[in-house]
Prior knowledge:
eight-stranded parallel β-barrel, three-stranded antiparallel β-sheet, 11 helices, 13 strands
Amino acid sequence: MKFLFSILRLFSPEIAHSISLNGLKIVHNLGLINFFTSKNTHLDSYTLNNLTFTNRLGIAAGLDKNGDFIDSLGALGFGFIEVGTVTPLAQDGNPKPRIFRVFKENAIINRLGFNNKGVDYLVKKLESRKYKGVVGVNIGANKESKGDKRITDYVECFKKVYVLSDYITINISSPNTPDLRDLHSKENIYNLLKSLDSQRQSFNTKKPVFLKISPDESPETLQIILDAVREFNISGLILSNTTIDKSLLQDKSFLNEAGGLSGEPLFNKSTQLVQSIKQLDPSIPIIGVGGVIDKAGYVKKLDAGADLVQIYTGFILKGPDIISELLD
Ligand SMILES: Cc1cc2nc3c(=O)[nH]c(=O)nc-3n(C[C@H](O)[C@H](O)[C@H](O)COP(=O)(O)O)c2cc1C
């Protein structure tokens, strides 16, 4: 497996991504997935917000934006899968190149910009999934949507995926959609969460709704977010998205590269955010994500107060082996 991943490093990041996920899907369809997973079934169930997770490790949003790989990722042994970010309309995202791997520092910079096939495509994938585990859907706004149209974008996605998902994540924290992070401000977050809360009241069943925030916010903004979370019945926080602070990288040649930084350099910043939020409100459920690339990081993230942990960059760098490394 390590050998295969060394070869994939020779390809451009997006080609490597496509080869590995489509390869995984073929292997899964052929019934050969067990060759890529450990014999251990990673059963260590955990209940949060009335959902039962088979274990506490999930795949973070962005890897399977369109829900094309839910069954194959599920078969690898993740305790839950988050798909998206999805927007109402399909969009191409930013021009390429838009993903940069910094292998020496176990890091990635990306400025994809919510490239996805649109919510109606994802709905079909959710309907046809066979995976029985927890699937969350991460929703966002189209790049061209401005002002109140952004809120309608979130509401549209929310309505369409609500009954088909186990939880929904409101993503206000991608640095790659212009002004999206403005949604952390008081007026914007209240307007957005109020609209989604009233939409949620119209459904008979109550699904957990998480808010995914940026690691680059001030203590004042965090307090505003926490107040809004309590006021509009948000079930928990996902901490965090990528950081725009490229000074966390030792390689200074990336200092001016636009995009969000993930992987090992993000670990301390995102883990401190988990700790701070836990101190401010110990009752709030947290999904911790950012820089987990080994067992020590996984344990530290849980110790900091995360109920569940997600990975993205660690999975890209190490492949499916990382699941056993973290959970066995
Ligand atoms: C290439 C790439 C694409 C991403 N796309 C999304 C996305 O669409 N939505 C989202 O909420 N987060 C997205 N993320 C952020 C991850 O979900 C995660 O929050 C972040 O990468 C930190 O975790 P990590 O250090 O384990 O990668 C993306 C990250 C990467 C590297």
